[in-house]
What does this fold into?
Amino acid sequence: MKMKIYRCLICGDTYVGYEKPLNCPFCGAHEEYLVDGSEWEDRNTGFELTDVSKKNLEKALEIEISNSAFYRCAADKAQDKVVQGMFKALSKIEAEHASTICKLLRIPKPDITAVEVHCSKNDLENLKESSERETRASNFYAKAAEEATEPRIKEVFSALVEIEKDHLDLDHQQIERLSS
Ligand SMILES: [Fe+2]
Ligand SMILES: [Fe+2]
It folds into this structure.
């Protein structure tokens, strides 16, 4: 087998491996956004942001920063090792979303490590809060995708809707496991 280079059209990060993963390992975007390194193009340039999209991206940035900080807190306090690993991964993915959004806003990415968000000592409580956060995020991104007139902004918000719904699915699985 030969090592290959794949690059994500949503977050721009590169994955090297034998095969194309089903999701971007960095932002969670679905397979269709992962392309061969030679086919990758920077889609963040060549257009102006409308006021509506700028406002929606700023709100999205707040959501991602808060969610990343929440997951970091939840991972630190986790009792269950599966939940701990999941929260840690989600914290990284939401931080990647924050930096993807900063690229679209054409601003430097903020230092998220300094942000503190309250979380519970109880895994189940945090899983429930996570599902509320992911629901709010995906609903907001669906609305933002609809409002966007720039194809790129529509594309990113639509990809984020799918990703946050995947997170919600993870929450439901772990809530079910811990409750049984
Ligand atoms: Fe990605
Ligand atoms: Fe996110």
